[in-house]
Fold:
Amino acid sequence: MLKLNSVMAALLLPLSIASIQPAMAVGKGIDQEASEGNGNARDAYFMLRRQGPTADFDVAAARHAAVEQKISAKPAFALPAAYQHAEVWQPIGPAPMIGGQTPTFPFIPSPVSGRVSAIAIDAQDGVVFAGGAQGGVWRSSNSGATWQALTDNLSTLSVGTIVVAPGVHPRNQATVYLGTGEGNFSGDSYSGFGIFKSTDSGHTWQGPLGFAQFRGRSVNTLAVDRANANNIIAGSATGVCGVAGLNPCGVGALPNRAVYHSTDGGLTWTQVLPTSGTERASRILQDPNVATRFWAAMAPLQPGGGTNGLFVSNDSGATWTAVDGVATGLPVADLANNGNFVRGYISLMNNAGTTVIYYGTSEVPATSTTGDGGTLYVSTDGGTTFTNIPAADGFCQGQCTYDMPIAVDSLNANVVYTGGAGASSTDDNTNTGNELTPSQFMRSNNGLSGATATFASHVRSTDQSTALHADMHAITPWPGHANEVWIGNDGGVWQSLDGGNNWINRNTTLQIAQFSGCDLDPFDSKRAYGGTQDNGTNGWSGSVGWPHLDFGDGGFALIDQVNPNNLVHTYYNQSSNLLGVGYTTNGFATTQGNYLGSFADDPNTTTDGNGIGFTDPVLFYAPLHLDRGVHDTLYYGTNKLYKADAFFSFPNQTPNIFHALGTGATGQVLAPGGVLTAIETVASIGVDAQTVFTGSTNGHVFRSTDGGVSFSEVDATPGVIAQYVSDIVVNPRNSQIVFQSRSGFTGASPAHNVRKSTDGGTTWGDASSGLPDIPVNALAFDPVAPNTIWAGTDVGVYISSDGGATWNPYSNGLPNVAVFDIKANHTTDTILVCTHGRGAFSLVLDAIFIDDFEGN
Structure:
């Protein structure tokens, strides 16, 4: 089961779009139920971009080989002679996104940074570690006032868990374990390469340990024995290599998802649960009273799997016994009989010599009227019996596979916290702030009471000054501090000193935004616009703090290259639900809730659609393009290509401003069996483009030379390169030179992930020598040096200074992270890269000469 779509899109978009114009019906195209159901669309988006040539192709091995190839390449590649010195990528944020989307009613904007999947605390040194989903490990020694990135040069920045080994240590010499691979089971929960170990509080790292057992998986739970530091137990789960769980990392090539045991500090590992087969592990903890006892909460994979639910080991992790069943008061976690049991979570505490266990499952409670999962149990006798806590029913809010942490206070066994997706409503919709339960973060002060325990929502500070972002992934009480709790969610990190009554926003210098697309201002080198996952669309004006400009999932984001006040972006797209864009003609002055909208409407209920086919198949992040000649002509791709002339001149929701291009009464299908992914035009400034290119999910490249009246396929996806076309770019100095990038794995050498045409797109050849077999996501021609082109890949940036004949990595100051978009601007001599996990970076090029440049 995969993560459902973001609560942001589900709950805030209806408000923002509805508020655009009173005539537009509330929730017309974006209702909660429909948008919650399109999580599979986002998962499919990532899957299509990162497929292997066969179902059992070992994507994990290919990704590891790509990292090794990058490391072994030239360590200091020289930029072209046009530059006076080697340029260094500069981090530009967001750190944080200001006024981010924290989904409460009434709305309380709060700073956000990005998805945090793990939090660990070294109470001895007063240090907090936070792990970004694809942003690596960060360290703060001043309670989150500032953060330091620790793992930018590791082979993966995908974090599943962070554990500080128990025991006394010299200052700044804590032993810290990093389990790589995000274990939140979402479509972009990147897998990892195993476990890394630091003996100096995260400043340096050894590893990966357990590569054979954990490659292509997520290590999302890990326990270090307090009585024997060499005794370690780790749990692995699904990791998706950037691919949806439908085809995770080469199904037949990967090690089992399971519980593994090491007795030599992680050098070697043995699978101990299940003894054969594969089951995901969610949470492993050592009993606070009995050092030889460990507990494991599992996540079933298939009906009748037999190794599901809660387990206990009484021999330091060597062997395990199931705990669930009638005798203990727990459900038998067998998917054959209990199909909604897909994840479990545990939290333990020593209560006067007795171990208290809180155990959460993804079960849909029998009394549920919504179908939302989340059932909580408590044991006050060390795990012999358990009692259900009905007040917590539905605490996951329908997204238990993605977000369901629970935690007990470090000093008070009665205080227990739960996290989930959450609802953004009050009890009476009167803006009083009294939220219904269950909500995305709840606290009970009497959890030990079991059946009579009560819960209250604690999403907002009581003074209404700040609020939590949706989708909780980590709840970590500070050891020895009553009521101090740190949380990590899709918006970053928050701290409370009073059990959640009030929150302190700790999204200060964390740069972990997951960009989907971005663009540069045509005239200002310190101005950019970008769409981010779960955190909307944001703008950069020179400061690392980026103002949050619009709601939802942010996809493609474009700036009109003649009038930069014209901005357009996508939220998410789904056939028969939402197809279209949000836009403004007032630049960054337009903020969330005030964007104009242009959407397709259901022809059975209304006639004011924008001309895009309501039932067209479409990518989750539908491709957009502004014409290279007539700057305000907008293109939008489904399986067809749509064009809107003078797009920004039309009022909100004016009917039928888009028209389909190509032959046929309703336009031409340009993505047979797929959908469009890339659009490019060739034109002189002020002249409507006559040459138009499109690329598709399944490798089809079409070209029109008559302004879109007709299209012909020009690259028939030969052999191993029938892969997602992620970008098409035309050389602005010579329109006969066209490049396309492919996002996927081919298993070949060269990888065929960049192709080149020297005759305007009529014929194509390989141009990928030097690139690893890794998805290439975006391309951009250098704004200064002729014959030079940049590529954004899943392992960073590469450059070719010989027209694509050879490629070299250029990571000078750039973390080892997936680059999802790259843009270059000749007027400002600036290059912008937007990463999926480490925010944005730029190069402002210091050139000896300015090339004679034709085009824009």
